[in-house]
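Comment thread on ticket #2218

A.B. wrote:
> Attaching the input chain for the structure job we discussed in standup.
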Amino acid sequence: MNPGTSWEFTDDRGHLTVADHHPTRVVAYIQAGATLWDHGLRPLGIFGSHHDGDTPDPAKAGELPLAELRHFGAGSDLDLDALRAAEPDLVVAVSYGGGQVYGIDPEAAKHLEERIPVVVIEVGKDRSLDGVRDRFTELARALRTTLRPAEAELERAERRLRAVTARPGRPRVLALSAAGADTAYLARPLTWPDLRSLTELGVELIEPEAAGGANWRTAEWSEAAALAPGILLTDVRANAAPRDRLQDNAHWRALEERARIVPWNPEAPSSHRAHARFLDTVSDALETVTADGA
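C.D. wrote:
> Ran it. Output below, let me know if you need it in another format.
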Protein backbone atom coordinates (compact mmCIF):
# COMPACT_ATOMS: atom_id res chain seq x y z
CA MET A 1 0.00 0.00 0.00
CA ASN A 2 1.45 3.32 -1.03
CA PRO A 3 1.04 6.27 1.36
CA GLY A 4 -0.86 8.27 -1.23
CA THR A 5 -3.50 5.65 -2.05
CA SER A 6 -6.32 4.10 -0.04
CA TRP A 7 -6.37 0.67 -1.71
CA GLU A 8 -4.44 -1.24 -4.37
CA PHE A 9 -4.12 -4.78 -5.65
CA THR A 10 -1.98 -6.30 -8.41
CA ASP A 11 -4.15 -8.67 -10.42
CA ASP A 12 -3.22 -11.65 -12.60
CA ARG A 13 -2.61 -9.50 -15.66
CA GLY A 14 0.12 -7.77 -13.70
CA HIS A 15 -2.07 -4.65 -13.56
CA LEU A 16 -1.87 -2.57 -10.41
CA THR A 17 -5.48 -1.71 -9.67
CA VAL A 18 -5.79 1.43 -7.57
CA ALA A 19 -8.90 2.81 -5.88
CA ASP A 20 -9.08 6.13 -4.06
CA HIS A 21 -10.76 4.43 -1.09
CA HIS A 22 -11.20 0.92 0.27
CA PRO A 23 -13.76 -0.86 -1.98
CA THR A 24 -17.06 -1.76 -0.34
CA ARG A 25 -19.38 -1.75 -3.37
CA VAL A 26 -18.11 -4.71 -5.42
CA VAL A 27 -19.63 -6.04 -8.63
CA ALA A 28 -18.28 -9.45 -9.69
CA TYR A 29 -18.51 -12.16 -12.28
CA ILE A 30 -20.92 -14.64 -10.72
CA GLN A 31 -18.27 -17.28 -9.91
CA ALA A 32 -16.02 -14.62 -8.36
CA GLY A 33 -18.96 -13.18 -6.43
CA ALA A 34 -19.82 -16.63 -5.04
CA THR A 35 -16.19 -17.10 -4.01
CA LEU A 36 -16.04 -13.75 -2.22
CA TRP A 37 -19.35 -14.55 -0.51
CA ASP A 38 -17.70 -17.66 0.97
CA HIS A 39 -15.10 -15.29 2.42
CA GLY A 40 -17.74 -13.05 3.97
CA LEU A 41 -18.08 -10.33 1.33
CA ARG A 42 -21.53 -9.47 0.04
CA PRO A 43 -21.28 -8.17 -3.54
CA LEU A 44 -23.38 -5.24 -4.71
CA GLY A 45 -24.20 -7.16 -7.88
CA ILE A 46 -23.09 -9.81 -10.35
CA PHE A 47 -22.85 -10.46 -14.09
CA GLY A 48 -22.66 -13.61 -16.20
CA SER A 49 -20.96 -14.89 -19.34
CA HIS A 50 -21.98 -15.41 -22.96
CA HIS A 51 -23.15 -18.92 -21.96
CA ASP A 52 -25.71 -17.51 -19.53
CA GLY A 53 -29.24 -16.30 -20.11
CA ASP A 54 -31.30 -13.44 -18.74
CA THR A 55 -31.11 -14.75 -15.19
CA PRO A 56 -28.10 -15.88 -13.14
CA ASP A 57 -27.09 -19.52 -13.42
CA PRO A 58 -27.76 -21.06 -9.97
CA ALA A 59 -25.00 -23.64 -10.55
CA LYS A 60 -22.40 -20.87 -10.64
CA ALA A 61 -23.90 -18.91 -7.76
CA GLY A 62 -22.80 -21.09 -4.85
CA GLU A 63 -24.56 -19.76 -1.75
CA LEU A 64 -25.14 -16.24 -3.08
CA PRO A 65 -28.58 -14.83 -2.15
CA LEU A 66 -29.52 -14.26 -5.78
CA ALA A 67 -32.93 -12.76 -5.01
CA GLU A 68 -31.22 -10.00 -3.02
CA LEU A 69 -28.50 -9.05 -5.52
CA ARG A 70 -28.58 -6.96 -8.67
CA HIS A 71 -27.90 -8.84 -11.89
CA PHE A 72 -26.40 -6.66 -14.61
CA GLY A 73 -26.78 -9.14 -17.45
CA ALA A 74 -24.50 -11.57 -19.21
CA GLY A 75 -22.11 -11.48 -22.14
CA SER A 76 -23.18 -9.13 -24.90
CA ASP A 77 -26.31 -8.25 -22.90
CA LEU A 78 -24.32 -6.82 -20.00
CA ASP A 79 -25.96 -3.49 -19.11
CA LEU A 80 -22.92 -1.24 -18.68
CA ASP A 81 -25.03 1.85 -18.11
CA ALA A 82 -26.89 0.19 -15.24
CA LEU A 83 -23.64 -1.16 -13.82
CA ARG A 84 -21.98 2.27 -13.84
CA ALA A 85 -25.13 3.90 -12.43
CA ALA A 86 -24.96 1.55 -9.44
CA GLU A 87 -21.65 3.26 -8.57
CA PRO A 88 -19.49 0.24 -7.73
CA ASP A 89 -15.99 1.03 -6.55
CA LEU A 90 -14.53 -2.27 -7.82
CA VAL A 91 -15.31 -4.92 -10.44
CA VAL A 92 -13.88 -8.43 -9.97
CA ALA A 93 -13.64 -10.50 -13.15
CA VAL A 94 -11.98 -13.76 -14.19
CA SER A 95 -9.84 -14.77 -17.15
CA TYR A 96 -9.14 -18.07 -18.90
CA GLY A 97 -5.86 -16.91 -20.35
CA GLY A 98 -4.13 -13.95 -21.91
CA GLY A 99 -5.59 -11.55 -19.36
CA GLN A 100 -8.80 -11.21 -21.36
CA VAL A 101 -11.82 -10.51 -19.19
CA TYR A 102 -14.20 -13.47 -19.40
CA GLY A 103 -17.90 -12.90 -19.90
CA ILE A 104 -17.67 -9.34 -21.25
CA ASP A 105 -17.09 -8.24 -24.84
CA PRO A 106 -13.53 -6.85 -25.16
CA GLU A 107 -14.69 -3.36 -26.16
CA ALA A 108 -17.16 -3.26 -23.28
CA ALA A 109 -14.46 -4.42 -20.86
CA LYS A 110 -12.20 -1.62 -22.08
CA HIS A 111 -14.87 1.02 -21.55
CA LEU A 112 -15.70 -0.42 -18.14
CA GLU A 113 -12.11 -0.24 -16.95
CA GLU A 114 -11.83 3.38 -18.07
CA ARG A 115 -14.47 4.27 -15.46
CA ILE A 116 -14.19 1.69 -12.66
CA PRO A 117 -11.19 -0.15 -11.10
CA VAL A 118 -11.14 -3.78 -12.31
CA VAL A 119 -9.32 -6.78 -10.82
CA VAL A 120 -8.93 -9.91 -12.97
CA ILE A 121 -8.18 -13.34 -11.47
CA GLU A 122 -6.83 -16.13 -13.72
CA VAL A 123 -8.86 -19.35 -13.40
CA GLY A 124 -7.77 -21.24 -16.54
CA LYS A 125 -5.64 -24.24 -17.36
CA ASP A 126 -2.31 -22.56 -16.60
CA ARG A 127 -3.07 -22.31 -12.90
CA SER A 128 -3.53 -25.05 -10.31
CA LEU A 129 -6.70 -25.28 -8.25
CA ASP A 130 -4.65 -24.33 -5.19
CA GLY A 131 -3.32 -21.33 -7.11
CA VAL A 132 -6.78 -20.12 -8.11
CA ARG A 133 -8.03 -20.51 -4.55
CA ASP A 134 -4.99 -18.76 -3.08
CA ARG A 135 -5.38 -15.74 -5.35
CA PHE A 136 -9.01 -15.30 -4.39
CA THR A 137 -7.98 -15.62 -0.75
CA GLU A 138 -5.38 -12.86 -1.25
CA LEU A 139 -8.01 -10.63 -2.83
CA ALA A 140 -10.51 -11.41 -0.08
CA ARG A 141 -7.96 -10.47 2.57
CA ALA A 142 -7.15 -7.24 0.74
CA LEU A 143 -10.89 -6.47 0.80
CA ARG A 144 -10.94 -7.14 4.57
CA THR A 145 -13.48 -9.93 4.39
CA THR A 146 -14.91 -11.25 7.63
CA LEU A 147 -14.71 -15.05 7.37
CA ARG A 148 -11.63 -17.22 7.71
CA PRO A 149 -11.04 -19.74 4.89
CA ALA A 150 -12.24 -23.26 5.71
CA GLU A 151 -8.71 -24.62 5.51
CA ALA A 152 -9.20 -27.46 8.01
CA GLU A 153 -12.35 -28.59 6.16
CA LEU A 154 -10.47 -28.76 2.85
CA GLU A 155 -7.49 -30.59 4.38
CA ARG A 156 -9.85 -33.18 5.82
CA ALA A 157 -11.57 -33.65 2.44
CA GLU A 158 -8.21 -34.05 0.69
CA ARG A 159 -7.06 -36.68 3.22
CA ARG A 160 -10.31 -38.54 2.78
CA LEU A 161 -10.06 -38.59 -1.02
CA ARG A 162 -6.44 -39.78 -0.91
CA ALA A 163 -7.48 -42.63 1.38
CA VAL A 164 -10.41 -43.60 -0.84
CA THR A 165 -8.34 -43.62 -4.03
CA ALA A 166 -5.65 -45.76 -2.35
CA ARG A 167 -8.10 -48.65 -2.06
CA PRO A 168 -8.01 -51.42 -4.67
CA GLY A 169 -10.53 -51.51 -7.50
CA ARG A 170 -11.00 -47.77 -7.88
CA PRO A 171 -13.35 -46.92 -10.78
CA ARG A 172 -12.39 -44.77 -13.76
CA VAL A 173 -13.98 -41.35 -14.01
CA LEU A 174 -15.10 -39.43 -17.11
CA ALA A 175 -15.96 -35.72 -16.98
CA LEU A 176 -18.22 -34.27 -19.66
CA SER A 177 -20.73 -31.62 -20.57
CA ALA A 178 -23.83 -32.73 -22.45
CA ALA A 179 -24.17 -30.80 -25.70
CA GLY A 180 -27.48 -32.42 -26.58
CA ALA A 181 -29.17 -35.71 -27.41
CA ASP A 182 -26.53 -36.60 -30.03
CA THR A 183 -23.21 -35.26 -28.74
CA ALA A 184 -21.17 -34.58 -25.62
CA TYR A 185 -18.12 -32.51 -24.80
CA LEU A 186 -15.56 -34.80 -23.17
CA ALA A 187 -13.31 -32.88 -20.79
CA ARG A 188 -9.53 -33.08 -21.00
CA PRO A 189 -8.59 -33.46 -17.32
CA LEU A 190 -5.26 -31.67 -17.47
CA THR A 191 -6.84 -28.46 -18.79
CA TRP A 192 -9.26 -28.03 -15.88
CA PRO A 193 -7.76 -27.05 -12.51
CA ASP A 194 -10.36 -28.96 -10.48
CA LEU A 195 -10.01 -32.15 -12.55
CA ARG A 196 -6.23 -31.90 -12.45
CA SER A 197 -6.47 -31.64 -8.68
CA LEU A 198 -8.53 -34.85 -8.60
CA THR A 199 -5.82 -36.71 -10.54
CA GLU A 200 -3.19 -35.42 -8.10
CA LEU A 201 -5.28 -36.86 -5.26
CA GLY A 202 -5.39 -40.27 -6.95
CA VAL A 203 -8.60 -40.21 -9.00
CA GLU A 204 -8.26 -42.06 -12.33
CA LEU A 205 -9.74 -39.65 -14.85
CA ILE A 206 -10.20 -40.79 -18.44
CA GLU A 207 -8.36 -38.78 -21.10
CA PRO A 208 -10.35 -38.68 -24.39
CA GLU A 209 -8.71 -39.02 -27.80
CA ALA A 210 -6.27 -36.27 -28.71
CA ALA A 211 -8.16 -34.98 -31.75
CA GLY A 212 -10.49 -32.07 -31.12
CA GLY A 213 -10.42 -28.93 -29.02
CA ALA A 214 -7.95 -27.92 -26.35
CA ASN A 215 -10.32 -28.27 -23.37
CA TRP A 216 -13.05 -30.52 -24.78
CA ARG A 217 -13.41 -33.26 -27.36
CA THR A 218 -16.76 -33.15 -29.14
CA ALA A 219 -17.94 -36.75 -29.45
CA GLU A 220 -21.03 -38.83 -30.06
CA TRP A 221 -22.52 -40.51 -27.03
CA SER A 222 -21.39 -43.87 -28.39
CA GLU A 223 -17.77 -42.80 -27.89
CA ALA A 224 -18.46 -41.74 -24.32
CA ALA A 225 -20.21 -45.03 -23.58
CA ALA A 226 -17.31 -47.02 -25.09
CA LEU A 227 -14.94 -45.47 -22.54
CA ALA A 228 -16.91 -47.41 -19.89
CA PRO A 229 -16.49 -45.07 -16.91
CA GLY A 230 -17.58 -46.21 -13.47
CA ILE A 231 -18.32 -42.61 -12.50
CA LEU A 232 -19.56 -39.82 -14.75
CA LEU A 233 -18.93 -36.21 -13.74
CA THR A 234 -21.63 -34.26 -15.59
CA ASP A 235 -21.70 -30.50 -16.09
CA VAL A 236 -24.60 -28.98 -14.15
CA ARG A 237 -24.37 -25.43 -15.53
CA ALA A 238 -27.39 -24.01 -17.33
CA ASN A 239 -25.67 -24.18 -20.73
CA ALA A 240 -25.33 -27.99 -20.50
CA ALA A 241 -28.21 -30.14 -21.74
CA PRO A 242 -30.23 -31.57 -18.83
CA ARG A 243 -30.51 -35.32 -18.37
CA ASP A 244 -34.16 -35.49 -19.41
CA ARG A 245 -33.19 -34.34 -22.92
CA LEU A 246 -30.81 -37.27 -23.31
CA GLN A 247 -33.18 -40.14 -22.61
CA ASP A 248 -33.87 -40.96 -26.28
CA ASN A 249 -30.20 -41.81 -26.81
CA ALA A 250 -29.46 -45.48 -26.11
CA HIS A 251 -25.77 -44.81 -25.43
CA TRP A 252 -26.62 -42.22 -22.79
CA ARG A 253 -29.04 -44.67 -21.18
CA ALA A 254 -26.26 -47.28 -21.15
CA LEU A 255 -23.95 -44.80 -19.42
CA GLU A 256 -26.65 -43.89 -16.93
CA GLU A 257 -27.27 -47.55 -16.14
CA ARG A 258 -23.60 -48.47 -15.73
CA ALA A 259 -22.01 -45.37 -14.18
CA ARG A 260 -22.75 -43.38 -11.06
CA ILE A 261 -23.74 -39.86 -12.15
CA VAL A 262 -22.08 -37.10 -10.12
CA PRO A 263 -22.71 -33.35 -10.57
CA TRP A 264 -19.70 -31.36 -11.75
CA ASN A 265 -19.55 -27.57 -11.93
CA PRO A 266 -16.54 -26.29 -13.93
CA GLU A 267 -17.27 -22.80 -12.55
CA ALA A 268 -17.81 -23.61 -8.88
CA PRO A 269 -16.78 -21.01 -6.30
CA SER A 270 -13.00 -21.06 -5.80
CA SER A 271 -13.12 -21.25 -2.03
CA HIS A 272 -11.87 -23.79 0.49
CA ARG A 273 -15.43 -24.63 1.49
CA ALA A 274 -16.67 -25.19 -2.06
CA HIS A 275 -13.63 -27.27 -3.01
CA ALA A 276 -14.04 -29.42 0.12
CA ARG A 277 -17.66 -30.07 -0.87
CA PHE A 278 -16.62 -31.14 -4.36
CA LEU A 279 -13.95 -33.53 -3.06
CA ASP A 280 -16.42 -35.05 -0.60
CA THR A 281 -18.94 -35.57 -3.41
CA VAL A 282 -16.31 -37.43 -5.43
CA SER A 283 -15.26 -39.46 -2.38
CA ASP A 284 -18.88 -40.43 -1.73
CA ALA A 285 -19.23 -41.68 -5.31
CA LEU A 286 -15.94 -43.58 -5.25
CA GLU A 287 -16.86 -45.29 -1.99
CA THR A 288 -20.28 -46.32 -3.30
CA VAL A 289 -19.02 -47.63 -6.64
CA THR A 290 -16.10 -49.49 -5.05
CA ALA A 291 -18.43 -51.06 -2.50
CA ASP A 292 -20.73 -52.20 -5.32
CA GLY A 293 -17.79 -53.89 -7.00
CA ALA A 294 -17.59 -51.64 -10.08
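A.B. wrote:
> Thanks. Noting for the ticket: The domain at 151-291 is CATH 3.40.50.1980 (Rossmann fold).
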